[in-house]
Design goal:
Blueprint lengths: L1 H4 L3 E11 L4 E11 L5 H9 L22 E3 L2 H5 L3 H10 L5
Antiparallel strand pairs: 1-2, 2-3
Length: about 100
């Protein structure tokens, strides 16, 4: 996985759907993530931390992997897991939140 993203940009997509008994709303959030070029040593050291195990994309942007990411375009929380801002906006639109 890390060979595939090394020195490249990739997209992270999350779909969110919220609803009440009367209505529902959904959105797909896209974030562009840029990785620096990684050496085999970079990859082996990161794997040895245990952080990438069980992670979609084999990295945790909120952890050690942040050192390899010079830039993102879009929602940070989308890359972490749940796009919070967009989810809150959906809930507000359905008047579930103020």
């Amino acid at each position: 996985m890390w060979h595939a993203i090394s020195g490249r940009k990739h997209d992270v997509f999350s779909g969110v759907c919220v609803g009440t008994s009367k209505q529902k709303s959904s959105i797909v959030v896209q974030t562009h993530v840029e990785f620096q070029s990684l050496t085999l040593n970079d990859m082996e050291e990161y794997w040895a931390t245990g952080e990438p195990v069980g992670k979609a994309g084999a990295y945790a942007i909120q952890g050690i992997a942040a050192r390899y990411i010079p830039c993102i375009d879009g929602s940070y929380s989308n890359v972490v897991g749940l796009p919070l801002y967009e989810t809150i906006q959906l809930l507000k639109a359905l008047k579930v939140l103020n």
